[in-house]
Amino acid sequence: MAEAREQQNKAFLEAAKLLAASQEGASFSSFSYETAATLLCEGELGRADFSNYQRHFIAHRAGFEAAKEGKVTPQSLASAIEKLKRDTHKKRQQRFIFRTGVLVNSSFKVRVPSRVLRNTRIAFKGNWSPLLERSEEFRHEVENYIWYDLPPFAMAATIQVTASDVMTASEAAYEALDLRRGIWNISLNRVPIHRSGISKPISRVRRAPLMTPYDKDGKPVEKGLFWYEEYVSQPEVESLTDSDWAKALKQEEWVLDQLSRCHYRNDIEAAIIRYAHALDTWDRHICFMRLWGLLEFLTASAQDSGRATIRRASFLYQNGEHTEIILDTLREYRHRFVHGGYEGPEIDAALFLLDKIVWDALRFVISTASLFSGLDECARFMDMPRDLKKLERVQRLQRMAKRFLTGKSIRHRRTTGEKPV
Hints:
The chain is α+β, with helices and mostly antiparallel strands. The protein contains 14 helices and 6 strands. A 6-stranded antiparallel sheet has the order 2-3-4-1-5-6, covered by helices on one side.
């Protein structure tokens, strides 16, 4: 991690030098400045400390603040960033209420409890009516962006967030919503091995098309402000049975219990949110690519070769050699799609196989959350040899290394006739 941070900082400094070397100073509407702003986000701002909106704002604003002193330099950029970071932390916190929903039927007997996730309270109750009690002008504004009919009988969600601004609050609201529906989808989603008829998203619990913000008194935060989903076809409400809900809520209790004892809760929550997004789209190839990216994240192999992803994921199975063959085939299909633009009819079978492997890896990471210090340590566990004799040899080598590092001699078996080190 330290090495990656150092590389990011070097890239940031190089970008700043490029800006400083320009003849007319920095051009803040140019491609070069946008690139530098992105590098600033990655290299200088902590992901855990700021929302995406705040990071983008600070990175974009820092160049203007630095330019007030004359030419933009690495030092002036860094100084401007530090000042903007302090100012952001000092902003007064406000309570926001977001009204949205999920595309599942609200007529069921099981009670969905309110939860606090990521310091955000989220509750589900009743039918989703986004335009109720809103002005005619607001309705027309929504119609300018949403071409489809807002589905009736979806389940309403109320999300309470405390944040410094409404944009940061909206990110937190969506993260809490996606975390919760991601947990439910772990137990509800099943990828069909082949399609019949028109394709539709695999995720059974998806976002409602609209989210609107209100202040603590229930008044709209800003005239005409809302967030919407760009669905490519008319969104439909999923019908879940009482037994579906019972299974999903039982899954939620288990996941939250595991997370409460976890040392790297943020990483696992991020994985669940990624799973929620992975199967939201109609496009099977996008689903496939998102799932493969999630598998790399779960196996801590995003910066390694595809072989590391395959080796670690196949470790989780008794018939690991068979799983390696499957993953090799899926990796080859991914390469053909990415590098050759190939979109074959076998995508349904490929997605079916990959979803099962990702599902198993995600369940494993959640169930062992209290045993490891992080995903990196979990990945080192997956790197262990599956062959028991090789595993015993590794254990002997570890014992020998421990003796050697504590200043003790390493004795070989007498039958070898070799002297101790």
